[in-house]
Amino acid sequence: MAATLAHLNHEQLGRKEYQAELKGLQLDLMKLQHGLYQQQLRCVVVVEGTDASGKGGMIRRATEVMDPRGYRVHPIGAPNGSERGEHYLQRFWRRLPKAGQLTIFDRSWYGRVLVERVDQLVAPPVWQRAYQEINSFEQQLCDDGVILIKLFLSIDKAEQLSRFKDRFENAHKRWKLTTEDFTAREKWEAYEEAFEAMLVKTDTTAAPWKTIGANHKRFARIAALSHIRDHLAERIDLARVQVLDPEVEKLARRIFS
In this structure, is the dihedral angle defined by the CA atoms of residues 140, 135, 2 and 78, taken in order, positive or negative? Predict the structure, then answer.
């Protein structure tokens, strides 16, 4: 069962240790991406979390040395006009990866039981039945061979305020602030309740949650990338992955010798 928010660990990590671990993890993820392509597997990574918990920064570091042709990142916001007229899961079906690809959802179908619940965009019976709908959807993905990885990053209220202030004072980060950030903060307790219910009701054997205390960004990034690496490695043998074609290696060694 996924840990609830009250039991998340928050740890610090030194810069040198962080950089060394990060480089090793990125190299492993790059190799595993090649293995995903070579074995024609599919992977979906779902990233949810508190506002300003570092979802985007973690995703950037996870994909930094990957081949951009082999992965897609979908930042999920409110559905557009045509999407509002269809089943809420339909827009996610269209974004699922093809064989050999990795797809990352920066927020996801869990909006039905989070923002749509808290902001009362749908009636209670609608979001209440969504837990089972989501579990069934994810079970279908897993049954079809998709490697499904779910991450939840959590920070406390004081840390969120500090990060909002940092964004406001940093010209390079101001674009990250939205009115929704502040209105959602006013509903902190309601969101905490929705997060807790989501983690309990959609933590399944086929698609478990990995909850990560993200008050310290370095720790959170290493924990998240390690989990993705470990989960992929259960299905992909790193020892069998060829990052460089043997013929290319042979030519390179002859030319560079």
Answer: positive
Contacts 24+ apart (CB under 8 A), 155-159: 155/49, 155/50, 155/52, 155/53, 155/54, 155/213, 155/214, 155/215, 156/215, 157/185, 157/188, 159/52, 159/215
Condensed to tens digits (0 to 9), the pLDDT of residues 90-111 reads 999 999 999 999 999 999 999 9
CA angle 180, 77, 99 (to 5 degrees): 155
DSSP of 13-50: --HHHHHHHHHHHHHHHHHHHHHHHHTT--EEEEEEES
Domains within the chain, CATH numbers bracketed: 5-108+141-157+203-256 (3.40.50.300)
